[in-house]
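User: New here, please read:
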Amino acid sequence: MAVMVNLKERNLQPEWMDDPGIDPLDHAEALRGLQRINGLSRAASSLFAPIRALARRLPDRPLRVLDLACGGGDNTLALAELARREGLNIRFDGCDLSVQAVAVATGNAVARGLEANFFKADALSDPLPGGYDVLLCSLFLHHLETDDAVGLLRRMAAATRHLVLVNDLIRSPLGYVLAWSACRLLSRSAIVHYDGPVSVQGAFQTQEVSAMAIQAGLEGALVRRCWPERYLLQWSQSDAPGPQG
């Protein structure tokens, strides 16, 4: 049974999957568990709606989307599958600090017959590549110190042609119970069992996300709740203030 913790204040703790010395077999098992959890959360659906709208506004060329800190590529490939079903001309790429995660994501893309390119990159320290219409991240912001999260949002806004999208956990009692339960129901991985509830303790609340977006210069950003106890931050270059006259 889940033991409730104090969620009024953010409690950022190291997560086992972030350990650079993680055993490859344990890492692979944890990524499989996260794939099932991400599928149940339908995070890709909330991310896909604004991407689809943008693709329909720009039909004359392929839309380019980069998923930062993509892990095993679950959401990247789910988005690619949704685009394929709807016949949309969208190119999805993903990057991650972990070489093993990149290899898993690449293998998953091949197995599912999806065209997606995965490469190694550190979203915090490497320059964000240009030329992408959409920069997104999912379940990454809660790993970061607040200043690093603000910095990442600022860099994403500067690098994207059109959209910044962030999908992540909400720090709340309901979110904690859902994470504790889902991680145990959908995975046998001890890493997932530990990291899931710890992730909620380190997550932001929606008002905190809105404040960080303002601090990062993402004026006009929308932050809304979505299933299951997550938020979607959406910001467009068109929301950015124009030059002052």
